[in-house]
């Protein structure tokens, strides 16, 4: 449904092979929490993955089957489908640092409380 | 609101608007709960790991789907659907077939903390959607969530979790789902995360305790709002037929008492019980120390029953069946034909192979299959190895009730320790038994001998005598015992010696009597001889006397004649007078 492909700006600063990120955000209806999550996600992606990510928003109210198939419990849940391995992040993504760690965009803090 | 607490105390006949209940179909549980779990409400099933929560919950669903037409959903947090299907296949449930028939749905909820990073506020709407979808897909009326507490290990925000769980239970209730929520037993509370706070309607606690290296499963209904329920702990067991709980209350003391009598297999023992033996359907306890002939007593009883064409079931907890058969042959009992013909069944097992209630259920099952009229349990004391006195007594109470309801005459043997008066404390079962035979060793004169007496026998006249119990190669004999001079029992060779002694004494006495008789005879003869002599003397005297009297008379006559003659000669007139006088 609400797919927001943003795949361009191909030339990156690094010479690394360009990895395209496929992200899925599971929500349940247009709740404030899901809206916040989507806004947070978009901001983070724009900041860190500009031009090489796809966000797919899945509303479980409309496709409840996927709650089972994708093992979704918490809402909202963000799933990094690509690059492998699959990673799951739950919550409204308001803690940016945790999101970045969760998405493996920055290394996990060594000894954080 | 009327305040009628006192009335509730003796909650007997008052028919109350009964809570709708969803029958579990689990043997015993419906009796305990008065019909099942609260319909349309969640029930908390808690217990430590491995106590049978998952199994009980699954059985609730399977029975609901198969027996009561209520489709069920099993939401598993710990086992995958494949694992579930495999595990329950071993218990005889074909989950896959039920799933294919849309009677059952299995859902595996996978939670792994390492996969989850929490980045802000969330709820568990995904779980709700999933549940709702699964429920709707098969029209589930029953739901099991096993174990919802896994969420706590997967998600760190307990505040959110608690709120969501509260919402979950409300949501289930609103949907009218009869649910079982399982929870791990906590250290101090019923569940580790205090789920009992949210589930207020019915809480069932399962327990799996190990005592004396034997594990026993128990079930207790901690609370059941709006319904009466059994409050004790009830042992339950898991076998290939699923869960069975055997509440004592499901039995009762309303069995019919038979007046029919059955022979004990030993005529003299029957004679001690009014010549007719035990009552049919009674429970007989033969207790005694080791080697006093308890098993033999049982074997005689069984032999007699087989001869009457009755089916016998023998639970041997000490010897193998072939050992019993061999040993009994040595006292002239051949049990083998009965085994071959199928009228006698041995079930030999070490008591320690399983827990008490497993034994109880094994016995129940075998009795229901074999339908015996006579049951031997040899010995019951071995159960003490696997349970404490209270448990064993509870188990035996149930066994006895069960046998009585089936009109089965049951003979229990029991080993007492030593010579002390443990007679009165045999597993505290004195009161349970109808007939109690006490076998004892008596040692005197460097010999050990068996004696038997009837300690009690309800409802019949019975001998108070102690008898010597002899086991010979041609059968059992009960002999009178002799009380020695100081009151000790004389048995065995002492008895034989005494018998011989008495025989000798009797002979002496007989001889004495004969002697006396002879003496008397002789005296009589002497007396008679004496009498004869006297009589002879008398007769002689009599003869003499008669003779003398004759002479005297003759002489007198002569004198008178002489006088007459002389008078005549003197020509006196006295002659006439003299004549008349003489001839008068």
Can you describe this structure?
- The complex is a heterodimer of chains A (113) and B (584).
- Chain A has 113 residues and is an alpha+beta fold.
- Chain A has one domain (20-102): Glutaredoxin, CATH 3.40.30.10.
- Chain A is 26% helix and 27% strand.
- Chain A contains three helices and five strands.
- In chain A, strands 1-3-2-4-5 form a five-stranded mixed β-sheet, with helices on one face.
- In chain A, helix 1 links the parallel strand 2 (21-27) and strand 3 (52-59).
- The radius of gyration of chain A is 14 Å and the shape is globular.
- The N and C termini of chain A lie far apart (39 Å).
- Chain B has 584 residues and is α/β, with parallel strands linked by helices.
- Chain B folds into three domains: 20-250, Rossmann fold; 261-490, P-loop containing nucleotide triphosphate hydrolases (Rossmann fold, 3-Layer(aba) Sandwich), CATH 3.40.50.300; 496-575.
- In chain B, 40% of the residues lie in helices and 23% in strands.
- A nine-stranded mixed β-sheet of chain B has the order 5-4-7-8-3-9-10-11-12, sandwiched between helices. A nine-stranded mixed β-sheet of chain B has the order 17-16-18-19-15-20-21-22-23, sandwiched between helices.
- Chain B is rod-shaped.
- The N and C termini of chain B lie far apart (141 Å).
- Residues 1-15 of chain B have low confidence and may be disordered.
- At the A-B interface, helix 1, helix 2, strand 5 and helix 3 of A face strand 6 and helix 6 of B.
């Amino acid at each position: 449904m609400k797919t927001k492909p943003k795949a361009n700006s191909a030339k990156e600063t690094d010479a690394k092979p360009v990895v395209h990120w496929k992200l899925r955000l599971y929500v349940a209806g247009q709740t404030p929490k899901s809206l916040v999550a989507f806004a947070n996600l978009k901001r983070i992606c724009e900041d860190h993955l500009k031009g090489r990510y796809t966000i797919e928003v899945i509303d479980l109210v409309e496709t409840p089957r996927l709650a089972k198939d994708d093992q979704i419990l918490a809402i909202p849940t963000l799933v990094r489908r690509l690059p492998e391995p699959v990673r799951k992040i739950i919550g409204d993504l308001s803690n940016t640092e945790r999101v970045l760690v969760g998405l493996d965009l920055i290394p996990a803090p060594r000894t954080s409380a | 609101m009327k305040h009628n607490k006192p009335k509730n105390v003796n909650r007997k006949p008052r028919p109350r608007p009964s809570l709708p209940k969803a029958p579990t179909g689990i043997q015993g549980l419906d009796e305990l709960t008065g019909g099942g779990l609260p319909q349309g409400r969640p029930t908390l099933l808690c217990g430590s790991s491995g106590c049978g929560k998952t199994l009980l919950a699954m059985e609730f669903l399977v029975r609901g789907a198969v027996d009561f037409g209520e489709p069920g959903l099993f939401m598993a947090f710990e086992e995958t659907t494949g694992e579930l299907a495999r595990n329950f296949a071993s218990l005889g449930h074909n989950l896959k077939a039920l799933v294919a028939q849309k009677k059952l749905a299995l859902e595996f909820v996978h939670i792994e903390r390492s996969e989850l990073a929490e980045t802000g506020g969330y709820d568990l709407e995904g779980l709700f959607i999933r549940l709702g979808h699964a429920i709707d897909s098969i029209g589930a009326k029953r739901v099991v969530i096993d174990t919802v507490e896994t969420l706590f290990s997967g998600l760190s925000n307990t505040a959110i979790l608690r709120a969501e769980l509260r919402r979950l239970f409300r949501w289930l209730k609103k949907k009218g789902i009869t649910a079982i929520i399982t929870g791990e037993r906590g250290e101090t509370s019923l569940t580790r995360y205090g789920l009992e706070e949210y589930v207020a309607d019915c809480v069932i606690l399962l327990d799996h305790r190990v005592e004396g290296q034997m594990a026993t499963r128990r079930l207790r209904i901690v609370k059941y709002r709006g319904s009466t329920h059994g409050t004790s702990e009830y042992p339950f067991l898991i076998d290939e037929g699923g869960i069975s709980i055997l509440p004592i209350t499901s039995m009762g003391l309303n069995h019919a008492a038979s007046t029919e009598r059955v022979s004990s297999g030993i005529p003299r023992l029957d004679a001690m019980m009014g010549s007719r033996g035990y009552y049919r359907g009674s429970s007989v306890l033969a207790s005694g120390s080791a080697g006093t002939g308890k098993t033999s007593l049982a074997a005689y009883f069984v032999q007699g029953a087989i001869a009457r064409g009755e089916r016998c079931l023998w639970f041997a907890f000490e010897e193998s069946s072939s050992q019993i058969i061999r040993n009994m042959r040595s006292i002239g009992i051949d049990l083998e034909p009965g085994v071959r013909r199928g009228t006698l069944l041995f079930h030999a097992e070490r008591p320690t192979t399983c827990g008490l209630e497993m034994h109880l259920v094994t016995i129940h099952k075998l009795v229901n299959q074999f339908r015996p009229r006579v049951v031997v349990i040899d010995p019951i004391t071995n159960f003490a190895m696997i349970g404490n006195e209270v448990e064993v007594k509870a188990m035996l109470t149930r066994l006895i009730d069960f046998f009585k309801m089936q009109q089965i005459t049951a003979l229990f043997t029991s080993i007492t320790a030593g010579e002390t008066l443990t007679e009165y404390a045999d597993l505290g079962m004195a009161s349970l038994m109808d007939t109690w035979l006490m076998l004892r060793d008596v040692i005197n004169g460097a010999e050990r001998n068996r004696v038997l007496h009837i300690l009690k026998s309800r409802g019949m006249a019975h001998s108070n005598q102690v008898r010597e119990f002899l086991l010979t190669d041609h059968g059992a004999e009960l002999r009178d015992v002799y009380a020695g001079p100081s009151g000790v029992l004389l048995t065995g060779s002492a008895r034989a010696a005494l018998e011989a002694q008495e025989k000798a004494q009797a002979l002496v006495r007989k001889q004495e009597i004969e002697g006396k008789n002879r003496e008397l005879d002789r005296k009589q003869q002497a007396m008679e001889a004496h009498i004869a002599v006297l009589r002879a003397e008398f007769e002689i005297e009599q003869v003499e006397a008669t003779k003398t009297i004759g002479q005297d008379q003759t002489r007198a006559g002569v004198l008178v004649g002489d006088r007459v003659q002389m008078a005549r000669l003197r020509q006196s007139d006295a002659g006439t007078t003299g004549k008349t006088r003489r001839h008068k």
